[in-house]
Each structure stands twice: as C-alpha cells, then as structure tokens.
Amino acid sequence: xxxxxxxxxxxxxxxxxxxxxxxxxxxxxxxxxxxxxxxxxxxxxxxxxxxxxxxxxxxxxxxxxxxxxxxxxxxxxxxxxxxxxxxxxxxxxxxxxxxxxxxxxxxxxxxxxxxxxxxxxxxxxxxxxxxxxxxxxxxxxxxxxxxxxxxxxxxxxxxxxxxxxxxxxxxxxxxxxxxxxxxxxxxxxxxxxxxxxxxxxxxxxxxxxxxxxxxxxxxxxxxxxxx
Length: 227
What we know:
Blueprint lengths: L11 H10 L1 H21 L5 E10 L10 H18 L2 H11 L5 H7 L1 E4 L5 E8 L2 H22 L4 E10 L8 H25 L7 H8 L12
Antiparallel strand pairs: 1-3, 1-4, 2-3
C-alpha cells in the first residue's frame, strides 16, 4: 500500500475551538501560575528600599552671583563626569571605611546609581538595600565625601547638596503586581503551547474528513455509533 504524504493545515477556527474546549485548564493554569508568582514575590524575594539625594553641579567654586548660559551648559555636561567620580574608589572607599561597611568597593559601586535629573545640572545619587536606614546612611555619607573629592579633582567645578538623603517608606522592588502578571501570562502561554503541541502530534482520525485530507483515500462508508 502506497503511503501518502500530507501537510496538516492550521485552521484558526479549529484552534479557537480547541482552546475553548480546554478553557478550564487554561484558566486554572493561569490562576495557579499567578498565585505562585505572588507567593514567590511576597515570601522569597527580599524587598529593596531606595534612598536618594540630589546635588547641583557648578562650573566654578567662587560664589559669584552671575551665572551665564555657557556655565549652565558646561555644568550639564559635567554631570556625566561627576557621576564617574562619585562611583569611583576615591569616593566610595572612604564611604566604606567611614561606615565600616561589609560591602566591597565593587559591590557598592554596582548598587550606587548617579543620573542627571531631567537633563539639568542636577544629579541624583541613589542606592538600594533591604534595610532602609542602611541605604539612607550610605547615600548620606556619599554626599559628604563626594564634594571634597570633586573639588580636588576638578578644580574648575564643585557640587552642593540640594536635598539630603531620603528613603521611601515602601520598597521599590520587587513589584508584586508586575511579577504576578508576568507569572500568570507565562503560565497561560505554557498551557496554550502544550495544548497546541499535543493536538499537533495527535494522529488519531476523528472524522471521515480527516482520513480524506491526511491519507488521500475515499471513505466508502461510516459505521454509525449505536447507543
């Protein structure tokens, strides 16, 4: 008997009916995955609190009241330079020694973030830690050490603290809503993929049309089911 090769066509209507038929399993898996994501986020992931302070960059060390546009532009450009200095060992090693931190310079440097605020001459220094008071203390010490180091290294400029270190009352990570939603979506995608793959590799013939389309044979008769 000669074998007939066939290609299984994807019918969107059949896919819809297949998913509808497995709707209970899909919904259940999605909910279970979301609950698992919620539980992991709440009980297994350590919450992180963020402390931050802002400093303004100046291009001069004198107290002249006159400020030109060129000076402001230069100060904006210096933010990126100052951010490198703030995260350097010249600043962070004294912070580690002064506070007797258990973190190494490499560990602390990765956690300290320095960024420009809205493309201005103001830079924001932030640091995250499970202990909010610890995070605040670290940022506070950085704002004490950094100005002196910057003035020594960049003689034409300086920085001043605008707002002292503050820490939020709520953790910044992890996001319970985000992680729960991601877990639910991943669970739903997984069960849908399993259902479709299972159907794709299902070679059983359910109707006479399946025999005709897959084997290319003409159906001469169908035995009816008798209750």
